[in-house]
Amino acid sequence: MAKSRKVPSIADKPSSFCPGCGHGIVIRLISECLEELDQDNNIIFGIGVGCSSLLGGILETDRLHCLHGRASAVCTGMKRVSPENIVVSYQGDGDAYSIGLAETTSAAYRNENFTVIIVNNTNYGMTGGQMSNTTMPGQKTTTTPYGRDCSITGAPIKFPELIASQFDVAYAARGTVTNPANINKLKGYIKNALDAQIKGEGYSVVEVLSPCPTNWGMTALQAMDRLEEEIIPYYPLGEFKTREVK
Ligand SMILES: Cc1ncc(C[n+]2csc(CCOP(=O)(O)OP(=O)(O)O)c2C)c(N)n1
Ligand code: SF4
Ligand SMILES: [Mg+2]
């Protein structure tokens, strides 16, 4: 008989994400990692604006809702005054890479010792699917009805690669939620990122390629297919920076 897995104690409330959304999987993985690292009673979340903010209604933990894009600045303050706590910034791509690009990049530049989880669904999900800095070239959104034209907007940001090659950060990775194997790998990345913070190694980030079936105008299964066929080939998965020699 198949056994169901125990629900982590800090994530036992129902969510209000759309069916097929990736946010819920990511939150579950973060909760499992915190529990396995014995940090579930020692966590403070900085929560961004967007569908990521629904996290605040699910978790029974200390948390602060931050102004749009400013979670990395808030987390910098929280971690500096309370270094014994684990601090995680939970944000969307629009929040972290568009509206908050300065704060996100500056925290990485300073190698602040906290962890950032960025759910990249290639649009501003909560507000109806506008273009963000990670919208794919040619992707139609409500603000790019003819498709994203990179000659006008610039090209999509690949943040983990950018900071791994340019800044002295501890850890940078990108994962996804398209199948059990990828979910298990993603969990490993999240754990490595939290572990880097626990060891005091510095800034850690995990970007998650995640479906937004509602704004992509797709079923849940079609959205997973789009990730596999179109988005993962553009945004490679894996670890880009780690302090450990592997
Ligand atoms: C200063 C400010 N500007 C704009 C908004 C409107 N707004 C709310 S959520 C959001 C987009 C969030 O997108 P993303 O971070 O990608 O999260 P998602 O909903 O896709 O998970 C925007 C623009 C706001 N709340 N505050
Ligand atoms: S709008 Fe998109 S990101 Fe937001 S809950 Fe729905 S599927 Fe998820
Ligand atoms: Mg988004």
Walkthrough of the structure:
This protein has 246 residues and is of the alpha/beta class. The protein is 37% helix and 15% strand. The protein has nine helices and seven strands. The chain has helices at 23-36, 71-81, 93-99, 101-109, 150-153, 159-166, 180-198, 213-216, 220-234, and strands at 43-47, 62-65, 86-92, 115-120, 171-176, 204-209, 238-241. Helix 1 packs across helix 7, helix 2 (71-81) packs parallel to helix 4 (101-109) and helix 3 crosses helix 4 (101-109). The longest helix has 19 residues, at 180-198. InterPro entries: 2-oxoacid:Fd_oxidoreductase, THDP-binding, TPP_enzyme_TPP-bd. Keywords: Oxidoreductase. GO terms for molecular function: oxidoreductase activity, acting on the aldehyde or oxo group of donors, iron-sulfur protein as acceptor; thiamine pyrophosphate binding. Pfam families: TPP_enzyme_C (PF02775).
Would you kindly provide a brief summary of this structure?
With 246 residues, the chain is of the alpha/beta class. It has one domain: Thiamin diphosphate (ThDP)-binding fold, Pyr/PP domains (Rossmann fold, 3-Layer(aba) Sandwich).
